[in-house]
Amino acid sequence: MKPGNLLKVGLFLSVSGLIVGCAASPDYSGNTDSRWADFKSWTKITEGRTSTGDPTGLVSGVHKGREGYRDVYVNDIGLAVNQGTAPYNYPVGSVIVKEQFDDLEAFKAQKPTDLTIMVKLKNSDTPDAKNWGWSAGYDSKLEEVNAFCSGCHSVATKTDFVFTNEDFLKKFH
After folding, report:
1. CA spacing 20 to 30 A to 72: which of 38, 56, 96, 145?
2. Where are the domains of the chain?
3. Which pTM value belongs to this model?
4. How far apart are CA 80 and CA 163, in angstroms?
């Protein structure tokens, strides 16, 4: 290989490593939606519980898949409902944040690589995916209609589209 090409390959690999390194750990210091900006101060509903695997059979390749680990937080608005029992009906303003880790090592080191957010936007007597907004990332824009997210979460219609509630945690953890 020519010396110039070797330098180009080395530069490419270095830049690629920086990009992957930056992407490997979310930066929670940016300008983000105030509804979830301080989620680390909320109740971690998975505290003391190892949240991994695929107990629903739906995770597959999302949320870091079967090998990934997850920590889930809920704000004070949704806390009472989340820690209660069915039927679940979260009030407007409830926010649920899921930090996702690639594997057990990343989980133990608390090095998350992804974040997903659910925000309850509308009250209703009956659960409806349109009552929730969804965001894939700390600085991402909230989407009121997200077929990808609501498609899987529709299995949890009876629990207002939220999987990680107290009944779920008791059953699977």
Report:
1. 145
2. 28-172
3. 0.76
4. 15
28-172: CATH, from 1.10.10.60, 3.50.70.20, 3.30.1360.40, 3.90.180.10: 3.50.70.20
List the structure tokens of 103. 């594997």
In angstroms, the CA 52 to CA 71 distance is 9
Report how far Cα 34 is from the mean position of its chain's Cα atoms.
16
For the chain, what is the largest distance between any 2 Cα atoms, rounded to a whole number of angstroms? 69
pLDDT tens-digit profile of 153-162?
A: 777 778 887 8
What is the DSSP secondary-structure string of 45-97? TTTTS--BS-TTS--TTSTTTTT-EEEEEE-HHHHHHHHS-SSP-PPTT-EEE
Question: The tokens 């110039």 sit on which residue?
Answer: 4
> Measured between alpha carbons, how far is residue 29 from residues 72, 86, 139 in Å?
19, 36, 9
Q: How far apart are CA 58 and CA 74, in angstroms?
A: 22
Cβ contact 123:90 at 8 Å = no
